[in-house]
Amino acid sequence: MNLADLPWLFGIALALVFFTYFEARGLRHQTRQHTLSFIVYTIGSKWPLSIWLMGMFAGGLAVHFFWHWDPTCTPMGHG
Questions:
Q1: Which of the four pLDDT bands, split at 50, 70 and 90, describes residue 67?
Q2: Quick one: pLDDT at residue 69?
Q3: Whole-number pLDDT of residue 75
Q4: DSSP helix/strand/coil, 54
Q5: Rounded distance between C-alpha atoms, residue 76 and residue 70, angstroms
Q6: In angstroms, what CA-CA distances link 8 with 11, 26, 41, 68, 77?
Q7: How far apart are CA 10 and CA 2, in angstroms?
Q8: In this predicted structure, what is the pLDDT of residue 63?
Q9: 1-5, 9-13, 62-66, 74-78: lowest mean pLDDT where?
Q10: CA geometry: angle at 25 spanning 15 and 47, to 5°?
Q11: Does residue 31 contact residue 38 with C-beta atoms inside 8 Å?
Q12: What is the chain's mean pLDDT, rounded?
């Protein structure tokens, strides 16, 4: 790991803290209407295409990160 990785690691840690805080806050609410799954359901019920677009985004990231990735074929220091 080098110094250039720190902003990414900090961003991932910040995203995990953000998600954990707001999801716990939503689960503590009496009606549990402020969780991520409820928000996705609410948006999807009003605009069904949004669920498909979220899936395409997640699938695109998965393909970008993991498809045909072989660390033994990557030159040292480049991946």
A1: confident
A2: 67
A3: 67
A4: helix
A5: 12
A6: 5, 27, 29, 22, 17
A7: 13
A8: 87
A9: 74-78
A10: 75
A11: no
A12: 88
On whether the CB atoms of residues 71 and 79 are closer than 8 A, the answer is yes
Q: How far apart are CA 70 and CA 79, in angstroms?
A: 10
Please give the structure tokens belonging to residue 16: 């995990």
Whether the Cβ atoms of residue 9 and residue 3 lie closer than 8 Å to each other: no
Say how many residues make up the chain.
79
- Which amino acid does the sequence have at 57? F
**Residue in the block written with tokens 């716990």:** 24
Please count the other Cβ atoms lying within 10 Å of the Cβ belonging to residue 12.
Answer: 10
> What are the structure tokens assigned to 73, written together?
């074929």
**The whole model's pTM is what?**
0.64
**Sign of the torsion angle spanned by Cα atoms 52, 55, 59, 65:** positive
